[in-house]
Design goal:
With 166 residues, the protein is α/β, with parallel strands linked by helices. Helix content is 29%, strand content 17%. The radius of gyration is 15 Å and the shape is globular.
Amino acid sequence: MDKTTLRTTMTARRRALTAAEAQARSERIANHLKGLLEWEQIYHLHVYRSYEEWREADTTWLERFITAEWPHIELTIGDVSRTAAVPEAVYDVVIVPLLAFDDECRRLGMGGGWYDRFLSAQPQALSVGLAYELQRAKTVPVEPHDIALDYIVTEDRVLMRSASHP
């Protein structure tokens, strides 16, 4: 499946979720993410701003969680556009949105390339994608500039790329 068709398919799958279904799945994703990261070793974290109307995996809980449990973490909430400048700060963890993923932790985004540019400038950062299982594809088509993620967290599991950080 080409990228355009895959984007259309996955956008439709995500939008077919009710708000309640998306929230329930997002809560399970949050629980997996809380158990995955070594919070005490994180000092700078970037996370995407989720949009309920897009039925993205919710990230609004993260600010409350970090403020309450890990106040030493400097949190940046990204609200990016295709033309936004890539941040120059150095991050320990970058949490990214996606439309589709595969078992090799390859990610398909909205098509602007912003997160690929950002991740290529953050080679030291642990990269984590948040998605619903229904966004899983057999294979995500890639181009040389596409950056695979270290982890993908869904409501059912945590996938790790084989060449991931230790």
